[in-house]
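Why predict the complex rather than its parts? Because the way molecules touch one another can change local conformation, and only a joint prediction can capture that. The input here totals 572 residues.
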Amino acid sequence: MRGGRLRDALVLAALALYAAPFFWQALTSVRPDAELLPLASLLPGRLTAVHYEVVLAKSLMPRALLNSLGVALISTALAVGLGALAGYALVRLPVPGRGPILLAMIAATAFPQIATVSPLYLLMRTLGLRDTWLALILANASFALPLVIWLLGGFIREIPRALEEAAATDGADRIATLYWVILPLVAPGAASAALLAFLFSWNEFLFAYSFTATEASRTVPVALALFPGVFEVPWGDIAAASLLASLPPVLIVVGFQRYLVRGLLAGALRE
Amino acid sequence: MASPRCDTSSRRSAADVADRRLGWLLLAPALLLLGGLTVYPAIWVIWLSLQYRVPVFGIARWAGAAHYAFLTVDSRFWNAAGVTALFTVASVALESILGLAMALALRGQQRGRRVAVALLLLAWALPSVVTAKMFEWLYHPSGGLVNFLLGGRAVNWLGDPALALPSLVLADVWRTTPFVALLCYARLLTIPAELYEAAEVDGAAGVQAFARITWPLVRPILLVALLFRTLDALRAFDIMFVLTGGGPAGSTETLTVYAYRALFQTLQIGFGSAIGVVVFVLVMLVAWAYLRLINRQEAAA
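Output of the joint prediction:
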């Protein structure tokens, strides 16, 4: 038993070491500039909040955080809403050609963004959507949608048909059944799909970098990639900005781990 | 169904037609979005790749296969293709070995499983731009932790053409190994302990048990993980674009970075699209090859 406890502690220590690059960035974000270059000791002599003050008061980060949050939340809602309806139709209703549609969904999850970024850019320009939230919402939602449909279709398939049939004999029509029977049962699965869609949108870089031009729509990854340095790179400020950009993913990994893991496993086991 | 079987066929088919109509109605919004923003662009990009399009100079004319013909003799393209192949093979190989090892270490974990999985998934969940910025700082010649731990050396990890690609691969491996580890770990948890007990009775333990029980059961899921990781590595863009920008001297310029540069920095929409199409075809071919391999394994099992 003691050996087991020691072994557990060793594995945890090894994993903490694995995550060290992140903790190092956290330490950098509270280290005074004078102790950054050159690096003289592992632990800082004193801690400072100045990098966070700079990032929150004098950079584009706050606006970028707002843009990212808005874009990610709306595109997630759009993807999960449309995905739930489509997933239900594909596994429960006699839609002609659903086999090919499902196959196309799997193929679409493998599409490289770099191939569709140029036509999408031209499309957004034509529609006058450059540098707007809407461009990113549409692009992110459509990119996440195939995986969401696949996940939700799979979760809906696991719900026993008998429940729907019971509702039908009680006089509920399809829509009522979908709302009162399917939706509550598929909610945990929808949470998994939503977390993955949210993470995709929050982390997405290529579309955001290509379709945005000003702080009106620049998301966190873009703001971080373009983080300004006047004469030298402000490593402490960048570290602070990185930490802020990492908040939602960290929250998800710590707080919603079960749903995240379930979604990841279900998404990988599409056959 | 509990309803009586004596439904007239006309009523039955009326319900069927209604269901079918409802099905299309529920599918329509998703298909519309996917049609407009995924399928249409995927076809349009092929059309774009057959044209000269340089908007700043007002150039827009038919090119035919000229871009593709040029790519066959373009040394920058072949360099990028080589970098992409090396990056993909190296990172996927390292990820699968490390990921499997991590899963095996995690399997026996009794206490702190949630913390362990959180520490593991952290690297995977971070935005890749954050990871790129983190590693850029870790690799910094005078302020970076890596050189400090090596005893105060001043190695220019990202500035040396010989070191930049391995450094980039390492950053990507850090980011993506947790995905492989999680899939393998989930599979390992489903292997019943009795199998190992039975093997032990037969005198098989340790390496032998691994070879006889663990490996055959984990291999299929590892193959699936490799499929996803290979596709992601071929499509990867953020990490090299932000960490090295494709440099130094093109030593980390992948096909995706070259395509981006052509599209948005030299503004050759047609030529850049042609490189994008090449990535597209490459990804689809690899996916098809993997799926065949997975199907064959399943058939054999």
